[in-house]
Structures are given as C-alpha cells and as structure tokens.
C-alpha cells in the first residue's frame, strides 16, 4: 500500500513537471515572429545598443511614377540609431520591378486577423525607389541613418510578394521590423547581430 502511494505521488509530480514545461514552451518570445529569418541567416545575439525607431506612425499614401506607371506608394520612415562603441554594417536594399528581388538585411511583418486568430505575414523590407541595389550602409557610433521602407510592395512579375498592407484606406495596422547587421572588433572578427522592434501601431490617413 505504501509502495502504491509512493508510485502515485511520483506520477503526479512527473505530470506536474510536464505541464509546467509545456506552459514555458508555449510562451512566445519577441523574436518568434522572425524566428525563420533568424535561423536561416544564422544571426547571433540580440543587440541592446542599436535602435530601430519609426520617425512617424501616421502614414499617408503618395502617388509615384514607377516602372509600371503611376502607383500609390505607402511607406514608413525608420531611423537606425547606433548607440554602441563600434560601427555597424547592414545591407539595405531598394525595391525592384523585375526579376528576383535583391537580398536585404531588413525584414518586416504585419499582423493579420483571421478566423483562426492573429497571424504575422513576414516579407523582406525594401527602401522606396526602384534601384534594385544593395547598399552596404555603415553607421558609426553615435550616428543614425533614416530609411524609407515600402509597406505595399507587391514584388516583381517573376517573384510576387505579399504586400504587408494591401488596403490603403484610412485605418490602423500593426507591424514590426527586424534589422540584421555586422559588427567588427579590434581583431577584425565580424559578428552578426540583430535588433527587433516591438509592435508598432500605424494609422493610414488620406492624402
């Protein structure tokens, strides 16, 4: 009888530990939105001294003449601030209208509400302007760099992408950004790190 009680107590403890472990596993870290990108790019630790900040969260679509004619462009100005003791280098690309999109170190995500719940749609982040080039941007300690990131880029004819924000009618949207960059120490060793924004609530207004 005593042996049975001991066995039962042991089983209860095991089940309790399993439940506790499951609860911890279900907790979602901030980087889960971009977990795939971080794994594929083999990026190291998060940086606390690099900041990625929206200059404005009130967005107004504007008409631009692009390769395929006049287009309503929606973008957000982001400022990259370097508060570290060393320079950082990041590949920041401009959008393109044909072929395969250029590689970039910037990613963007938008939250969508569906019947099954909230989901995040993640896409490469491109600067406004059909240059199709990767700019190796170097930001020195204490300096900052402003970029204008397209939010409704549809991709190219041969490589379509999901626009982060399709509907340009007035309304609110939730977005996030991930920036990858390299740092170099005195010995010449380059390390890959990243910075990720919290959720950013943006509001589209009419022009």
Please outline what is shown here.
The protein is α+β, with helices and mostly antiparallel strands. Helix content is 15%, strand content 42%. The N terminus is likely disordered.
Features:
13 strands; 2 helices; 15% helix; 3-stranded antiparallel beta sheet; 8-stranded mixed beta sheet; 207 residues; Immunoglobulin-like; disordered N terminus
Q: Would you tell me the structural class of the helices and strands?
A: alpha+beta
Largest sheet: 8 strands, mixed
Q: Proportion of β residues?
A: 35-45%
Helix content: 10-25%
The CATH class label is Mainly Beta
Q: What form results from the Cα inertia axes?
A: globular
Task: Kindly report how far apart the N and C termini lie.
Answer: 79 Å
